[in-house]
Amino acid sequence: MAAKPHHTVAKLRREYAKLGLPNSGKRADLVRRLQDCRISATAPTPADSSSSDEDFIGCWVATTILSHVSDAIEMARQKLIDAAQNDTLQEETLRNDDRVITNRRGGFLSRMREDLDDVCNKLAILDEKLEATTARLTALTADHTVKTEALFAKTDELERTAVGFRDFRNKFIGTYKRDILQDYNDENINCFNDGDVNSNDTTLVTRS
């Protein structure tokens, strides 16, 4: 069973000391020894298929053995039997309202498991939120791409339109100068000076 990331070596050693467990070694060793010493037992499932998990109480009994023994499994079995028979057992209600029967060391492991379950549930929720956010960002990116392409197309269209208007304006001024103002006089100049045209237009159409 993996410890939560914030379970430092110092914190694990303090917990080991409270439980009367050997607290020497590195963090990985402390976590591994917790795994080796954990046992969970529940009553056998009855034949009645209508029973649910709420009909049972989990039983957690934990102990420790020496790390260097010839038959660790057999020693663990005997130590667990002794702990179940001789340790003080108590009933605890966890934060999720699950009830467990446990000795002191088993209670520590059950609380660590509950903490791990909480972390896993929160990670699952975060994964769902991340997927939803990623989907929204993908949709926004696609929409942005479409709008950007439309903007570029509109810009090209406006540029072509501006060039067309410029060419039309120049052609109109040239034609007007050639066909109408070839014999211009002061009356023509005053008309342009008073009209809605700029000085360049006036110069273009009033000079030979």
From TrEMBL:
Coiled coil feature spans: 109-143
Signal peptide stretch: none
Domain named SAP: residues: 4-38
PROSITE patterns: SAP (PS50800)
Alphabetical UniProt keywords: Coiled coil
A Pfam family the protein falls into: SAP
Protein name: SAP domain-containing protein
Organism: Talaromyces rugulosus (Penicillium rugulosum)
